[in-house]
Amino acid sequence: MIDAMPNVGVVAIGRNEGERLKRCLRSALDATGRVAYVDSGSTDGSCEFARSVGVEVVDLDTSVPFTAARARNAGIDRLTERWPDVEFVQVVDGDCSFAGGWFEQAERFLNEHDTCAVVCGRRRERSPEDSIYNRLTDLEWDTPVGEARACGGDALFRLSAFREVGGYRASLIAGEEPELCQRLRRAGWSVHRIDAEMTLHDAAMFRFSQFWKRAKRAGHAYAEGAALHGKGPDRHGVRGTRSALLWGLCVPVLGVLLAWWTYGLSIGAAVLLFGWQAWRIRSGQLARGRAARDAALVGVFTMLVKPAQASGVLLYWRRRLLGQTATLIEYKGQGSPGSEERADA
After folding, report:
1. Which of 3, 195, 204 is nearest to 99 (CA)?
2. Could you tell me the residue ranges of all domains in the chain?
3. How far is residue 345's CA from residue 330's CA, in Å, rounded to a whole number?
4. Between β-strands 116-125 and 155-158, what pairing exists: parallel, antiparallel or unpaired?
5. What's the per-residue H, E or C state across 185-233?
6. What is the pLDDT of residues 5-35, one digit of tens each?
7. How confident is the model at residue 229 (pLDDT cuts 50, 70, 90)?
8. Alpha-carbon distance 71 to 170, whole Å?
């Protein structure tokens, strides 16, 4: 077992990830022997495999509602109990594997930038050519290099900064990373994405229904983020919430309600508005250097799932007004061998 990076530990989370988890843990162990895996009720032998290769395992109490945020907090607690001298903690989803050289580059960056709390690199899809939805997810991961507002599910944290702000908000069912980064930046820390390969992710999305549910989850995250931090200087979550409600609810509903008085012209106008906005998004993607086909895909599918995002916003507020506990909006299932539906990726 490698322990060439004693300052760095890894926390992976997952459920029934099968071969993906094996790839994940082996790639982590190639860099450090300080690895913890948090399992949320797997039935595929995930825990047994993790223990067999020397990974510390946390069996999450499934009687308490699961969130990825809660799992990551539990993993970091166990990791630092087992190895108190860890300074940097890499969090990763169990369906990801690490690129060679990532840990060295990320640790070096944190050592050279004292005010940086978290660093992330390029997360790529393992098989973007397998479906339009995998391709769209790969494009989504391609965010600008430099100081950023947030990281994603894979990132290397400075443990002292993570502890200072209290870690992940365990109750969040989605959007826990931007929410944590919001608190870190308010505390004076920075977030960076560096120009380095970080992880390969397996979205395994082959149906529009999966993409729809993922967008619904994003809408829920926008709404909850806005409720928590929307009055701050960054207006966290506000823009996403407003966009979801405008394009996913107001425009289509008005188009239908006015159809009788406009002889159906209002529905045509709504369709034209959607097309115009998709074209604007496409133009913005082209300006970023995207290929024409990719830019068009992003524009069209961003608008197609606006109603899903709006339904996620409404779901959040319905749950909040009724005092209901939020439960996961899961999208990953069939077409993903060895995996049950989950929403931590």
Report:
1. 195
2. 8-206, 216-322
3. 10
4. antiparallel
5. HHCCCEEEEEEEEEEEECCCCCCHHHHHHHHHHHHHHHHHHHHHHCCCC
6. 679 999 999 998 999 999 999 999 999 999 9
7. very high
8. 8
Q: Which residue has the tokens 């990763």?
A: 92
Handedness of CA 203, 204, 206, 207 (dihedral sign): negative
Identify which of 240, 78, 102 has the alpha carbon closest to the alpha carbon of residue 167. Answer: 78
Element containing residue 38 per DSSP (H, E): strand 35-39
Burial class (CB within 10 angstroms; exposed 0-12, middle 13-18, buried 19+) of 258:
middle
Kindly report the backbone phi and psi dihedral angles of residue 28, in degrees, each rounded to the nearest multiple of 5, phi listed first. -70, -45
Q: What is the DSSP letter of 102?
A: H
Distance of CA 241 to the CA centre of its chain: 17
Q: What pLDDT is stored for residue 3 in this prediction?
A: 61
Residue of 81, 68, 91, 96 lying closest to 158 (CA atoms): 91
| Backbone torsion region of residue 291, taken as left when φ is above 0, otherwise alpha when ψ lies between -120 and 50, otherwise beta | beta
Are 24 and 51 in contact by the 8 Å Cβ rule? The answer is: no
Q: Residue 334, Cα to own-chain centre: how many angstroms?
A: 20
Give CA–CA dist 174/182, Å, rounded: 14
Q: What is the pTM of this model?
A: 0.89
**What are the structure tokens assigned to 261, written together?**
């008085």
Asked if 42 and 18 touch (Cβ cutoff 8 Å), the reply is no
Say which CATH class 8-206 falls into.
alpha beta
- What are the CA-CA distances from residue 330 to residues 168, 203, 241, 244 (Å)? 20, 12, 20, 19
Tell me what percent of the chain is helix, strand and coil, each rounded to the nearest 5.
Answer: 50, 15, 35
Residue type, 18: G
Question: How does pLDDT run across 154-188, given as a tens digit for each residue?
Answer: 999 999 999 999 999 999 999 999 999 999 999 99
DSSP 24: H
For strands 8-14 and 35-39, give the pairing: parallel
Residue with tokens 């919430």: 241
Structure tokens at 47: 């825990």
Contact between 27 and 97 (Cβ < 8 Å) = yes
